[in-house]
Design goal:
mainly alpha, elongated, disordered N terminus
Length: 218
């Protein structure tokens, strides 16, 4: 799973539901009862506004963490250290290509900026919208699929009950922790996660920690 690293300061306050969620998960799941105390330090952290988070996700697609950071730094420089829809749209295709973005990513990040700038997205209403409604809206943006939308709900909006079944790390962790390393289908993973509701985001975060002790960051 690709991690997108940003130089902004983390919000160091745990989500208000985190402690309660951990207690509930340890009560109802024998694996998490062991994992949570083992990897108990830390919690899901958010940073950046919605546009920045999604732009970073596009920049980081299919390249290494180091490469993503280099390209992002160049995009920051080109946009005068403020990546927002208007600044991105003010840059030419050549400017964005010079920052290191592929032709396709230039199309994606401009489409993202146009969606925000035109008001086609209901970003100011997302707080009160259901998870699936937000995912559907985000997936209308070129270059953003369900996995990216789910990462956005987890790491930007801190939604508590997201289950990213397309995430390779989550499937691997479920395989190792619940099936002794045997291959796991989406159906089997969903059945395991049924025991985690309504705190599937928290359980997923600890699944990731079980295969990589470093906290997942986006």
């Amino acid at each position: 799973m690709t991690k997108v690293v940003e130089q902004a300061i983390f919000e160091e306050v745990a989500p208000e539901y985190w402690e309660h969620a951990c207690a509930e998960l340890m009560k109802h799941d024998r694996i998490l009862k062991k994992l949570i105390p083992k990897h108990g330090s830390g919690f899901l952290k958010t940073r950046g506004d919605a546009f920045t988070t999604l732009a970073r996700a596009i920049v980081g697609q299919q390249i290494s963490v180091a490469a993503a950071q280099t390209v992002w730094n160049r995009v920051l420089l080109a946009s005068k250290n403020k990546v927002n829809p208007k600044n991105i749209l003010s840059l030419s295709i050549e400017d964005l290509r010079a920052a290191g973005l592929s032709g396709r990513k230039v199309e994606y990040i401009r489409d993202l900026a146009e969606h925000f700038d035109s008001g086609r997205l209901h970003a100011n209403q997302w707080k009160g919208m259901e998870d699936e409604a937000i995912i559907k809206e985000l997936c209308e943006i070129r270059g953003i699929g369900r996995w990216t939308a789910e990462m956005f709900l987890m790491f930007n909006m801190i939604r508590p009950n997201i289950l990213p079944l397309d995430d390779v790390g989550l499937i691997k962790a479920i395989s190792l922790n619940y099936f002794s390393g045997e291959p796991v289908s989406r159906h089997e993973a969903r059945e395991v996660a049924a025991n985690w509701a309504p705190w599937r985001t928290v359980a997923t975060w600890y699944m990731w920690r079980s295969i990589d002790p470093a906290p997942v960051e986006y």
